[in-house]
Design brief:
It contains 6 helices and 3 strands, in the order H-E-H-E-E-H-H-H-H. The chain is α+β, with helices and mostly antiparallel strands. Helix 1 packs parallel to helix 2.
Length: 177
């Protein structure tokens, strides 16, 4: 996700393995023409994937969250541990420390999980087939980029990024098929 335009540049369905990270980073690199600043979470597979996809042509930082000890209370078994701090590692180039953040993408993930039952574990709506899950993710990101006006931007992310000059209608998206 681009922090300035809020555009979802790319997404990938898959496990959290190296092959998925490689595919995602190659796709991101293929969609962007200029040098960018990228921040990922502390998942180790991203470091090699970013280097392979971008080489030295990127300002790349990794933000590692430090979590406190899990609670022993049985009622909290589905609750995440408390984040007690963050550590930033610069892996390539010279990223601006003021813009090293994963907040926008984390907020987007939260919005998806809260807004679509397919992301709610332990329910009967949870996606059981990867193909169906992929369709739901596409149905989230396409409207988000092209015909949902972002509250802080007051235009769509695609308009802010210069990809279009108007809010798309559902009919325009369907005509792409």
């Amino acid at each position: 996700m681009d922090a300035d335009t809020k555009l979802i540049v790319s997404y990938m369905l898959g496990d959290r393995g190296a092959a998925t990270a490689q595919s995602l980073m190659r796709d991101v690199a293929g969609r962007i023409a200029n040098r960018i600043q990228l921040t990922t979470d502390g998942h180790r597979v991203y470091a090699e994937a970013v280097e392979d996809a971008f080489g030295a042509e990127i300002d790349y930082a990794m933000l590692v969250k430090i979590y406190g000890a899990p609670m022993e209370n049985p009622e909290s078994r589905y609750s995440p541990a408390t984040c007690i701090g963050c550590r930033t590692g610069i892996l390539a180039g010279s990223p601006d420390p003021d813009h090293v953040s994963t907040s926008y993408v984390e907020r987007q993930n939260l919005s998806m999980r809260m807004g679509m039952r397919r992301f709610t574990r332990l329910t009967n709506a949870f996606s059981k087939k990867l193909e169906n899950h992929g369709h739901m993710v596409a149905l989230c990101f396409i409207p988000y980029n092209y015909y949902r006006v972002h509250k802080t931007l007051r235009v769509t992310p695609a308009m802010e990024a210069g990809l279009t000059n108007h809010v798309w209608s559902v009919e325009e998206l369907l005509n792409l098929l």
